[in-house]
Amino acid sequence: MSPKSNAGDGKKPLLDLKDVEGLNMGLNSRGISIFWNTLDYFHTTGKRHWLMKTYIVFLHLVGFTYCLLGFAAVFVIEMDIKRVTAAIMNPICGLQTVFKCWSFSYSTAEYLKLFELLKRDFMTCVPPEKKLAVNEVTRKNISVTNQFVKYAMRWNCLTLCMVSFMPYLRSQIFREFFHLGVGPIVPNKICENEYPFEWNSSPVYEIIWLYEQVAVTIAIVTSSAYQAILLFLVMALVGHLKVLGFVMETMKASDFNGNSFQRMDESAKAKSYKQLIKCIKDHQKINHAGDLLAARYNTFLTFHLGTAIIVGIIAIFNCTFATELADKIKFAIMCVYGLLEVAIYCLCGQLLENASEGVLRQVYSCEWEEMDPKFRRAAQLMMVRANKPICLRAGRLYRVNLETLGAIQQLVYSSLTMLSSMVQ
């Protein structure tokens, strides 16, 4: 969809506050409100807000330059496996941030289509008499979503913020106070990135310090916002699947004929079939949204998980062989940053698969044996489709779930064994 195609939607807001009632998206805070308004501006006009343009340009200038200098330094430093691996770790993390901005800024219109998942009227199959029960199902899912996103973002922000305090752990005062050695560690920068020029003299040192602090701040904002959007969209899909499963599981013959001891007449059969068709249409709509979500995030997850695995391997490897306490702490932080995001996305994908597969069991749990043959055939088709769960994928081949997380752990262990043997 082209960016200007959104302008045909008129001036209708992207989302009203009532659409996300209960979701702790921080819409009342100024920072997130500005971010949301820039997206809504694009939605209604088809044009990027000047704040969005400024942010994209600024991130590319800082982030891309940071990555370029970091990778260029590898060709001028002394070739030692521990130093080289540590040198490429920081620009890889910077490349993750730049790629997040690329994937969202250049496909904003396609991403905004997915925000329809957050609307309260996304589904139409809920009968009036079950709305209270469905609201309780939705409330529980919103509670889980808020907790999931809150802790995921807190850990993400914490690991990135701790990077800014690394120079203090490597400082002369800290080392001498705790009797960890004498004299400062050189280099002593925020990210300890390598540079292909002499930087350890004033005023270049101060410029590098400020430059890396800006880069870390941008990484915190970008990573947190992008991660929150993905988690909210996935959990919205999970919530819709739970609602659909609840409606199907509680579908009884007595809902249509008014008497559980009476056989269904033609009118009751027609009503039950009509209700099932609504559920099937909503199931198709959810699956279509799931396919769009998986397709839109496939490239991002492929790149992000791959680089996060590399960062985790390098961090554990250098943490094992580091001699300074500050270095061990730094690499431990980077290990948490790299592998924790992998675990969050895998858990997120597993929740989506579980909810999608649960629809199959819940369709079978309805009183299909009391319904007419036409109802049974339609329910069978719905079960066949539910047998193919919605899932996030990386590389269009691998499902992003807990099974993949286990395979990643094995890959990390094998890679560490290989690197350790090279050092020895």
TrEMBL record:
The keyword Membrane applies. It is a multi-pass membrane protein. Keywords: Cell membrane, Membrane, Olfaction, Receptor, Sensory transduction, Transducer, Transmembrane, Transmembrane helix. It is found in: Cell membrane. GO terms for molecular function: odorant binding; olfactory receptor activity. Its main location: membrane. GO terms for biological process: signal transduction. One of its GO terms (cellular component) is plasma membrane. The keyword Cell cycle does not apply. The chain crosses the membrane at residues 55-77, 300-319. It comes from the Eukaryota. Belongs to the insect chemoreceptor superfamily. Heteromeric odorant receptor channel (TC 1.A.69) family. This is Odorant receptor. The lineage of its organism: Eukaryota, Metazoa, Ecdysozoa, Arthropoda, Hexapoda.
